[in-house]
Design goal:
Elements (H helix, E strand, L loop, with lengths): L1 H20 L6 E17 L4 E4 L5 E11 L4 E18 L3 E22 L2 E23 L2 E6 L13 E13 L3 E10 L13 E15 L1
Antiparallel strand pairs: 1-2, 1-3, 1-10, 3-4, 4-5, 5-6, 6-7, 6-8, 8-9, 9-10
Length: about 220
């Protein structure tokens, strides 16, 4: 909980810094949040096969700046809290659920199309993420255990701390600033710690998200 409070404070500070340093009167700022449906994708490079876990339910919260480049294009940097993880089976019948909290810094390029009482937007861009907290819940029969996840690249860690990937997003924003969107996070980092990987199987994040926000 302390980590979450510190991260939230960092987001507020970053948002105020954006507001103080921008010099363009056309730049807007916003806050959006919503639901994440994250999962893992596994790719076995030896067998040339892939599989995906079940999704779990988590959250997202993002503060951002929208900097116009022209009438139809803008750059949207931000800082966000992203809830990730997955549901899957381990050793045949052990049901496992990962719940991961990550701080992400996305930088998206948006195309904007005026329509009706606002505009449609479509965008994509890279993100850098850092896993800061997490919990793994394991259910065997009627017994459930919960353990804190460890992040790093040693044989005592569960997942790597750093994650890089691409975001894809689309939505509609009213002239009032109210906006509705959906997105997809494509993780490119192999999350399996290098020292614990005995095969060439890669583990990546996949996150479907839905948001409601306001730009001002």
């Amino acid at each position: 909980m302390k980590k979450i409070m510190l991260v939230a404070a960092a987001m507020v500070f970053a948002g105020s810094t954006f507001a103080q340093t921008t010099t363009s009167s056309r730049t807007t700022f916003g806050l959006k949040g919503g639901v994440n449906l994250p999962k893992y994708k596994y790719v076995n490079n030896d067998a040339n096969t892939s599989s995906e876990t079940k999704t779990t339910t988590n959250f997202n919260l993002t503060g951002y700046a929208d900097v116009p480049m022209s009438r139809y294009f803008s750059i949207q940097p931000g800082i966000s809290l992203q809830g990730k993880g997955a549901k899957y089976y381990e050793n045949g019948n052990n049901q496992v659920e990962d719940n991961v909290l990550a701080i992400e810094i996305p930088v998206n390029l948006l195309a904007n199309l005026p329509a009706g009482l606002g505009r449609f937007y479509l965008g994509a861009g890279p993100y850098a993420g850092f896993n800061v907290a997490g919990q793994r819940k394991t259910t065997i029969g009627n017994a459930t255990t919960k353990d804190d996840l460890k992040f790093g690249n040693s044989n005592s860690d569960n997942l790597k701390a750093l994650d890089f990937g691409f975001n894809f997003l689309a939505g509609y924003q009213l002239n009032s600033g109210l906006n509705f969107g959906a997105g997809y996070g494509l993780g490119l980092t192999n999350l399996t710690p290098t020292s614990t990987s005995s095969t060439k199987t890669e583990q990546n994040n996949r996150v479907l998200s839905f948001t409601v926000g306001y730009a001002f």
